[in-house]
Amino acid sequence: MAGEKRDFDAESATWDENPGRVKMAHEVARAILGAIKPGPATDVLDFGCGTGLLSLALQPHVRTITTVDSSQGMLDVLDKKIKAQGLKNVRTRRVDLEQGNKLTGTFDLAVSSMTFHHIRDTGMLLDRIAGVLRPAGRIAVADLDSDEGKFHDSNEGVFHSGFDRHTMMKLFEAAGFVSVRNRTAAIMQKPGPDGVMRTFTVFLMTGEKEA
């Protein structure tokens, strides 16, 4: 597993040109809306937001979304979308936990899609997210089921070859989340690094911070 950090800034300009990536973000958004049912009083944190594909799909259904990413390039792309669409309830914030930045604010719902496998210490991240959720706040994390390292063309910056759902559930519970549930949020086909077409599944795991 590669330990180097991936240069997401360099990929930001063409990030949305991948139709599979866009389709998956919308499928994850539908799964979150179905599982959580956020509403007009819901303040959301999107951790690892990238260019905001998930955030902008959720935006019409919630009060505010604070988007967080370590890549300024990704956030710059999202800022342009926010300006072009005249959105008033989405704001961007650069946070790099590995550089010692802190998660701040108070939220009803934290979401994250396809980010956790890029995080070295996922238990630490869950603790940090729990720390900014209101009592009875919800969390919804979408990521790959165990993929044997076949999903990415390059495993640079990838610390986990997907996740075992039972193991992830235990991490949620260790961070203080209850009523932990999971479902399959998306199914996608793509060629692996060897060119062989494979099917990958993305789970959505949800939980609630104890009141």
What do these coordinates show?
This protein has six helices and seven strands. 29% of the residues lie in helices and 30% in strands. Strands 3-2-1-4-5-7-6 form a seven-stranded mixed β-sheet. A hairpin with a 5-residue loop joins strand 6 and strand 7 (197-209). The mean pLDDT is 89. With 211 residues, it is α/β, with parallel strands linked by helices. The chain has a single domain (8-209), classed as Vaccinia Virus protein VP39 (Rossmann fold), CATH 3.40.50.
- What separation lies between the terminal Cα atoms? 38 Å
Low-pLDDT ranges? none
Shape: globular
Radius of gyration over alpha carbons? Answer: 16 Å
Number of DSSP E strands: 7
SS content category:
alpha/beta
What is the domain tally? 1
Counted by DSSP, the helix tally is 6
Mean pLDDT: 89
CATH topology: Rossmann fold
